[in-house]
């Protein structure tokens, strides 16, 4: 476990250039970019890194083909460029994924329009995607996805985007920020911001460590509010009567057995319920179906899937995979997240919808030392972070801020892979599924994880016999990846909670004894940690009526 006392001491005794509030993908990106430009950086997160939106996405790094429909060409161009950068700098975490898009009689998007849109999609990627789109006839579609409905099928197309592990992409970004010199602390909540009344005075930030209740006052030249759905709460610390800057859109996904759906790869669908673009995605033993998009009616701490959300997704999937006959009992897990859309499009809120709201971000600067970023999407986080640091630079008087961001050319941790990295791992580990998992999650650093199992063979055992996650990965997460709780381990460092019907509760009973000595837990603390996990699993994966 990282020495939290040392981190808190650093937080209290260093005058930072930039203190980032929020450890999702945006905040992590800002901390990394700023640290690599030579700034003194702190990052504080009230829960765990990626605990909010950044672990509840569709797990796609994509150009955003559905945004073409709304004319957001600039966003698609930027996202296509960023997808290309991430495929190069994080090849273990961001992997090419081919999509099949079937077209049926009477579809809202006819085949000619789909092909024209995909040609534009390729063009906005400067024809430098993994591969160009390819038109498919009926036979071509069924050859790729034989479980699709045949009735009314007119053909379709295949195109390329990329898949990721959103939580681990966020974590890798945080770890690279640490490597560049940033002070980071999860489970530490900002309770107060005090902007200076005189030039030259620092911003004062009160931070409470949720694990120890210790309180420190940090000082910094600039605070970056990158709290996503919680961004308005941070803003109100300095503007109690300020208008909302974030428009929340709730998105729900379900995981069902891949064997029931029968998809061979990723499929893009137009829901037979309302015509909305949605995805059927491969995810190990599961198929993920998503997503819904409705205005968020509850706060980000309370947002959950409802039975109506689940029914919509199952009905949509069954409409295209008729032999699946998915029922409520087939759902392995269901989860909801809030997309923090910039509230510049409040008209969408007033009209009761969010689908047409732009995913482009908004950066606001208070000359007293507060920069707030809202909106954006997972794929474009790196570029967005660079723009945030650029926006903060004029507030850092007297500091030599390196002019250009370096993150476009710097691999994320583990991102320099040997051509035969996977083969080497399979030979060393002897379990192909575990080896593949470790390479995909850790890249070239898989050796660091497996070395723990080599020293202590019991750590080579799976924590769930049906899943490729071993004890060594949990120990590594505590000792090297800033994990502090069972939810950190089973929801974000690994996706066990998403892939088990009990949301990881049984795995938590296996994990707790493995990590208890590292975290200083006695029997009573283990019991509390398990109770905390059960409550967190219910909060994240429970389904409301």
Automatic annotation (TrEMBL):
Pfam families (UniProt xref): DAO, DAO_C
SUPFAM superfamilies linked: FAD-linked reductases, C-terminal domain, FAD/NAD(P)-binding domain
GO molecular function: glycerol-3-phosphate dehydrogenase (quinone) activity
EC number: 1.1.5.3
Top-level enzyme category: oxidoreductase
Ranges where the FAD dependent oxidoreductase domain occurs: 17-377
Substrates-to-products reaction catalysed: a quinone + sn-glycerol 3-phosphate = dihydroxyacetone phosphate + a quinol
Alpha-glycerophosphate oxidase C-terminal domain: residues covered: 405-524
GO biological process, one term: glycerol-3-phosphate catabolic process
InterPro entries linked to this entry: DAO_C (IPR031656), DAO_C_sf (IPR038299), FAD-dep_OxRdtase (IPR006076), FAD/NAD-bd_sf (IPR036188), G3P_DH_FAD-dep (IPR000447)
Alphabetical list of Gene3D superfamilies matching this protein: Alpha-glycerophosphate oxidase, cap domain, D-Amino Acid Oxidase, subunit A, domain 2, FAD/NAD(P)-binding domain
Cofactors required: FAD
Keyword check for Flavoprotein: yes
Top-rank taxon, per record: Bacteria
Database matches in PANTHER family: GLYCEROL-3-PHOSPHATE DEHYDROGENASE (PTHR11985), GLYCEROL-3-PHOSPHATE DEHYDROGENASE, MITOCHONDRIAL (PTHR11985:SF15)
Protein family according to the UniProt entry: Belongs to the FAD-dependent glycerol-3-phosphate dehydrogenase family.
Protein name: Glycerol-3-phosphate dehydrogenase
Biological classification of the source: Bacteria, Pseudomonadati, Gemmatimonadota, Gemmatimonadia, Gemmatimonadales
